[in-house]
Design goal:
The complex is a heterodimer of chains A (330) and B (300). By secondary structure, chain A is of the alpha/beta class. Helices cover 37% and strands 25% of the residues of chain A. In chain A, strands 3-2-1-4-5-6 form a 6-stranded parallel sheet, sandwiched between helices. A 6-stranded mixed sheet of chain A has the order 10-11-12-7-13-14, with helices on one face. Helix content of chain B is 34%, strand content 24%. Chain B is built from 11 helices and 12 strands. The chains are: A alpha/beta (330), B alpha/beta (300). At the A-B interface, strand 9 and helix 9 of A face helix 3 of B.
């Protein structure tokens, strides 16, 4: 594999998370955004305004651009397989938003496509780049917590129901979010995969899982979930996720035989956030997203296999599907 | 002067909401009259915020109102709950997520999406301008139109959402954001095009700057007077809300009111109001955006 001096990135999908990726990717010093694809013309016009030279309404045209080394894929989940497979076949490295796919079978196909075409595949799990969680991992490895008997991983927010805007105009939640065939599930699939991935980084593989699901909004998908999970380390963790709150709380509590620690990832207050933006262009809340992209570009430049991998994405989806099957009735 | 009632919901009552609504109607001497069969109820639904946030009408309030209507008028009523799609809200989801599908099933009432219903064009003048709206037939053909609003803050210069603003949601056009540059006049014009017979305010939970249990039910037949009282409760001066003056000038109602029932000051003290610090912070953000620093500071 050739070493890259500056990675030429293409972004496929400029919705909510795609816009954040674009903003950060434009700030990278080890990569440049050379192309963007989206079906939304406003999104393409905004990308042009930000200085992206090539914009496409059809992502397959972007994949034909020979200058694109790698793509960031931030499209709706049901399109992950199709877009990731096409990208791999076009010999583009892939950073794929979580969850990897809507089913285990599709997740396996994504991984196979990357392997078959010898391209790197990384999953978008920014919490793996949160300094607090990385320190937690370090402390755990160094025995500072002793053995972690229990852990609680909580992620509660409005999820897809956060107020959206298209330019200055409020925008509705895209219809695909209301269709479980297109999302693969509800909040456990959307937010739970973040927490499961984080817990797997800390405690190893999932050996058993049980789920309890809530339907406050009376939809076909769960809008809250509490899962009990056992890991190879022996730790029993409770994953608590919800789309029901206007507040935002992402927190991991570790209860160890030596000490207990809590780490949160929440937006900073306005003034500190403004200061961070002014001085570095990135708030502490967005920093893991920025670091994730920087790391991906570094991996490509140095020909290193990035992590979290496609297999990580698969393991997370497997655990989620298992939780949907092993429901606890209370 | 218009009568506006304020009632504190008594949790000791058998049917707290139904009794509070009945009491609020009694205080304004309201009687339903005869010959009423088709009733339209317009709750305030916005986005997918459930009623615990104080942003939307509690379906239990509407449920209690339906029970009262059937008890007071007759059991065989044709009741429609109406709302429309909005820039950021798809009603088919909102009705389900906010508990209105369940309510409709339990009470045997119809849920109407005004954005998808039959409507006729109506021209109205307001404050020197002329406006054209599609008025849904379900509203114009109703024998009784009940506006079930909520007291909330909203964008300047309108500042207040209550009875008048709730009628904005009767405009079937889904992309309502485009009206925002002329919002005050559009609200008044819509109130001229679609006149509601009765305003009921469900402020079991107040929105304010944060939600708070308030236990308030208000009633009035004059939406301008109701909004004037609502403004006072929210710590705003009704004389400094320009569209209330426009509404009065256009004959929609009067800002003069006679409040009956519980003390207005009691609810005013409870309402989570905007503080001077919040105002300063908002002004600072506006100023920073104004000088082009919004994006750089993460304010946009």
């Amino acid at each position: 594999m050739k070493q890259l001096q500056s990675v030429k990135l293409g972004l496929i999908g400029v919705g909510g998370i795609g816009r954040l990726h674009l903003k950060h990717a434009l700030m990278l010093n080890n990569a440049e955004v050379v192309a963007v694809a989206d079906t939304n013309k406003n999104a393409l016009a905004q990308a042009k305004e930000l200085g992206v030279k090539n914009t496409y309404s059809d992502y397959s045209e972007l994949l034909k651009n020979p200058y694109v080394d790698a793509v960031l894929i931030a499209v709706p989940t049901h399109l992950h397989l199709q877009v990731a497979r096409d990208a791999a076949e076009a010999k583009k490295h892939v950073l794929l938003e979580k969850p990897i796919a809507v089913t285990v079978e599709e997740a396996k196909e994504v991984i196979a496509a990357a392997q078959r075409n010898s391209v790197k595949l990384m999953m978008g799990y920014p919490m793996r780049f949160n300094r607090g969680f990385l320190k937690l991992k370090e402390d755990l490895v160094n025995g500072l917590l002793g053995e972690v008997e229990n852990a609680h991983a909580t992620y509660i927010c409005a999820g897809p129901f956060v107020h959206r805007a298209d330019g200055h105009s409020p925008a509705p939640v895209p219809d695909w979010w209301f269709n479980t065939k297109l999302t693969g599930g509800g909040v456990l699939m959307d937010l739970g995969c973040h927490m499961i991935n984080l817990l797997r980084m800390l405690f190893g593989e999932v050996t058993d899982v049980r789920g309890q699901f809530g339907h406050r909004y009376r939809m076909d998908f769960e809008d809250s979930a509490i899962c009990l999970m056992r890991f190879t380390s022996g730790t029993l963790a409770a994953v608590n996720v919800g789309w029901y709150s206007q507040d935002y709380m992402l927190r991991v509590d570790m209860l160890g035989t030596v000490s207990s620690v809590s780490v949160t990832h929440v937006p900073p207050p306005t003034l500190p956030a403004m200061y961070q933006m002014l001085t570095s262009g990135v708030s502490s809340f967005s920093k893991p997203f920025f670091d994730e992209l920087k790391y991906f570009a570094d991996c490509l430049r140095n020909d290193i296999a990035p992590s979290p991998t496609g297999l990580d994405g698969l393991r997370d989806v497997e655990a989620i599907i298992q939780a949907y099957k092993n429901t606890i009735e209370i | 002067m218009s009568l506006v009632s304020l009632v504190k919901i008594s949790q000791n009552a058998d049917k707290p909401l139904q009794e509070a609504i009945a009491q609020s109607l009694g205080l304004i001497n309201y009687s339903f009259g005869s010959g009423i069969r088709r009733i339209v109820i317009k709750p305030n639904l916005c986005y997918y915020w459930d009623c615990t946030t104080g942003q939307t009408t509690d379906p239990r309030f509407v449920s209690a109102l339906i029970d009262l209507l059937r008890a007071e008028i007759c059991p065989e009523l044709y009741i429609s709950i109406v709302e429309s799609d909005a820039s950021a809200m798809r009603l088919k989801y909102a009705y389900r997520m906010l508990g209105y599908e369940k309510l409709a099933e339990e009470k045997g009432v119809r849920l109407v999406n005004l954005s998808e219903s039959e409507a006729s064009n109506v021209e109205v003048s307001c404050n020197g301008g002329s406006y054209s709206f599609m008025v849904p037939d379900v509203i114009s053909g109703a024998d009784l139109r009940i506006n079930v609003a909520h007291i909330k803050y909203t964008v300047d210069p309108v500042k207040l959402t209550c009875a008048l603003k709730n009628v904005f949601g009767c405009n079937p056009a889904p992309k309502k954001f485009r009206y925002h540059s002329d919002l005050g006049n559009v609200i008044v014009a819509l109130n001229k095009a679609m006149k509601f017979n009765l305003c009921l305010i469900d402020n079991s939970i107040a929105a304010g700057v944060q939600p708070r249990r308030m236990g308030l039910v208000m009633a009035g037949q004059d939406p301008v007077a109701v909004d004037a009282v609502a403004a006072k409760i929210a710590g705003l001066n009704p004389d400094r809300i320009p569209y209330l003056a426009v509404a009065e000038a256009e004959g929609v109602g009067t800002r003069g009111y006679v409040a009956r029932g519980a003390e207005l000051e009691y609810f005013r003290a409870l309402y989570p109001k905007i503080t001077n610090r919040m105002k300063t912070k908002a002004q600072l953000k506006r100023a920073l955006r104004g000088v082009g620093l919004g994006k750089r500071l993460g304010l946009e």
